[in-house]
Here is the input.
Amino acid sequence: MSTDHHHDHHHDHDHDHDNRYSDMQARVKALETVLTDKGLIDPKAIDAIVETYETKIGPRNGARVVAKAWSDADFAEWLRTDATAAIASLGFTGRQGEHMRAVFNTPDTHNLVVCTLCSCYPWAVLGLPPVWYKAPAYRSRAVIDPRGVLAEFGLVLPEAKKIRVWDSTAELRYLVIPERPEGTEGLGEEALADLVSRDAMIGTAIAGPRP
Here is the structure.
């Protein structure tokens, strides 16, 4: 185990389900192609809808989890001991979100999530996975050079801060609980949730006001 990062992965897990379309997904993709070819739908409109669910609606669930953890010490402890139940108590359950683990950033340690074999991802709390999360370059380099990968995302961490890399599997998915930004003591949960981005809950960003 490196002193710089920790790679936690069980290689005997079955990841194949995330690499293939289901029958329904394949039919939807085929229908989308036919309708696009006939000029009946605009691919850009479809992309805009997908982006909304990917970056706004889906991640909002996770942001609420983080905001509650920042505001409620008992809930934060519940997240540490049984993230699946704690998250489910807020109504966020479903496909690829049945078994969760919350990992907390601290002044000494930053957490980063990857799936090295495919794209296991907690849809129930983060929505659709970003394209880069499924890219081979991210899946391999996040483990080999996490500090360099984070720098490419614009997140340059102090050399003294450790980076732990968590490898999602078909059985277990991770949610990063970022550090609470300074000066937010008087904010309610709704305002705190506005400070939490999808990328912060994967570990490629930190929480704070959006640019």
